[in-house]
């Protein structure tokens, strides 16, 4: 299964000012598979990071926005001109003391109205944390994918996180506020939490066949599975999930008052990854875990491609992960992405990968040639 399909080219131009190593850049982003070559520190990853930030207002390297600005710049700006549905659209981010957002010159207040005008999936070396790292890494993977597929997911997640912060603050000051205030937060937490659990259950079910396909391509006869294991159980009816989550809050109330933190909910759930029924986090080799992380990203790309249709562009970002694969799996991966509508792949030298690329460009000292 290759990545040819309905999803159009995402970007036609990327403009940067004061972003990471780029003082000024205006780059016509080509369609197809592009290899970005250059020495370590040349700025290849910075380009991928800029594209990812334009799509999601999120860096895959840092949560500190100040790290995105060039060292000698007071801020940065980023402009992404989109392909997509045939209508030219322009996304603009300006970060000085505060961040400002525009779509086609119109100011945007809420981040949720800015993101996902195009879709991006990034493969990075740190992705092994999706398998070997804490459960929060896997929850974040689900939340980003779910938010790209469903605006309602993002709204529910934002509301849940806000209520969770407020409820935790109240638990730390329980003696001052008492049961009545806590019960009011319980109702909100349960409503948004059950909605998130339901969406995650459905999302993992949609992801399952794509991950199984990726597993067959990388592991042969090996069975690669993902299973979401919420504390409420896997019954996906919203009414049932709501009732079970509320019962669990009541059951754990004394412990929560003692610990000053909310102990149950989607912020504590797990995504279990197994290869031939063995949990990979505990029993997977380094190579199996890295390949599983790659398969998980590929599965998410396929799911996004299927859902995006011909309305939103979709871009694949591959940063320095090919060297982590053995020769056979490296060729398998390159074969799979050969027909991508648009992909950017960073490599130090293009020799081995050039046959799979539509073009090779060189990045050097803040310039793309």
Kindly describe this structure.
Strand 1 (11-19) and strand 2 form a beta hairpin. The chain has helices at 44-56, 129-132, 135-149, 151-172, 174-219, 238-251, 253-259, 280-283, 286-308, 327-337; strands spanning 11-19, 22-27, 32-37, 76-82, 89-95, 99-103, 106-108, 119-123, 224-229, 270-275, 278-279, 314-319, 342-347, 359-364, 367-368. It has a 6-stranded antiparallel β-sheet with strand order 2-1-4-5-6-7, covered by helices on one side. A 6-stranded mixed β-sheet has the order 8-12-13-3-14-15, with helices on both faces. A 3-stranded antiparallel β-sheet has the order 9-10-11. By secondary structure, it is an alpha/beta fold.
Secondary structure blueprint with pairings:
Layout: E1 11-19, E2 22-27, E3 32-37, H1 44-56, E4 76-82, E5 89-95, E6 99-103, E7 106-108, E8 119-123, H2 129-132, H3 135-149, H4 151-172, H5 174-219, E9 224-229, H6 238-251, H7 253-259, E10 270-275, E11 278-279, H8 280-283, H9 286-308, E12 314-319, H10 327-337, E13 342-347, E14 359-364, E15 367-368
Helix pairs in contact: 3-4, 4-5, 5-6, 5-9
